[in-house]
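Page 37, top half.
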Amino acid sequence: MKVLISGGGIAGNALAFWLSKLGHAVTVIERFPSLRATGLQVDLRGHGIEVMKRMGLEQGFRSKLAPEQGLQVVDSSGRRRAFFPVNKSGKGPQNFTTEYEIMRGDLCQLMYDETKSGAKYVFGRSIEGFEEKGSSVEVRFTHGKTDKFDLLVGADGQWSRTRRMMLGLDKPDMLFPLEGGKVYVAYFTIPRPIQEGEEYIATMYQATKKRGVLMRRHSPHKVQVYLGGTSESERLKNARRGDMKEEKDALAELCQGAGWQMDEILKSMVDADDFYCERMGVVQMDSWSRGRVTLVGDAGYCPSAKTGMGTTSAIVGAYILAGEIGKHCGGDNTKDNLANALEAYEEKFRPFMNQVQKGILEDSGWDMMPTTEFGIAVMNRLMGLASFLKINLGNWFLRENVKNWDLPDYEEMQR
């Protein structure tokens, strides 16, 4: 089949890897002028680890591992109140820090390097529109050209334009913000040379008024910052997505004076050129496909960063989609059986995503965060007790433990 994938991120690269291996003519179109090998730390959990191994990427993945040793919780004075180490036993669920932490850019580059010889990549282009015509979908590109494909796949993230066009630009989008659109997280890096004796440990600080920050060291020269919380701020709400200066100013206004190292972080944020502010949300759809158009990864079923399962869901979903295409669209019936393959993709993978996303919109957990100094002190004591008792809180808060679901084996993908 002739397949167009919109989006050259983790989901798009993973799908291109498998479909090109199956012998399909794959084109990946990416609106950025080159591979977007940037972004902060991501991880793999559960079935995502197994898919990565089946891709033959374990050695390359391990060579690029982020060196994080665990997560500590500190109070406003910087005193450690709890510590949760990475689970390196190879058994049981991962903790907050997994054994498979990697920078997003490194994972994208790793998959791209394994795929570029079998798939065509077109950078600096995006889709203007598309229309299904008989046995193909005609795609119009932003540079004015058109082409026909047997299948169009949207792998263009949480704010997917492919999804919006598939549903109809005049129809409601299926992206549902957490807490009514009041949950914001900004991601960026700041210069901070490692100090003598300092370890590669993530540090979480919870402030009053549901504000907080997570800092993760991945380099001797800089650290990652995850800054945000829940806010009624009209300025933040009205800031245009992507207006870096206004978003930074609104966040600084929100988080100033929050304690610990917050003010120092805010000063460094001003010069951060990799800043990105996310309005956290969940994508939930009755169907991921319409005709010859389907979605994969965050475009179809973004679970929100709160689940810890975004990257895993993307590469497992890509594996299932490619596997069902290989199973149903081989031989002489390639095009005719596409509908069966897309139906099977939903049937196999939706039980997985239903568990990952279950209850997130109804209870995102943000309303449980303490707002007062007393509440934070109680939370820190409870975290300390869990740490002392070696309770894996990551297994409680995150959604790795998908039950009664097994990763399928696809004979066509093992050749």
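Page 37, bottom half:
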Amino acid sequence: MICGILLMLVLALEMLKDRKTNHIPLVYIPLMPVMAVGAIVAVIPLAMFLSYQEEFDKLNPLIPSHYWFLAKKTMHALKTNNWKVSAKDL
């Protein structure tokens, strides 16, 4: 699932690059920040999962419901602690 999201982001950026070199109107440039945020939101929970594996020992990020739980828990911990997380915050 995550690889699919990242692949879509990479393909979208490649499409934007091709359009830029062909001088087609750059209507899609405003989407770049949205795609960057999407990539960050997709990668941060996986980084937390790898960093604090003992906290998430029963979760498998390949299962969408487990990934959703991991993402919610990670984003909540990041938001409440000024974007700094330790094992006790999770």
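Margin note: Residues 31-51 form the longest helix (21 residues).
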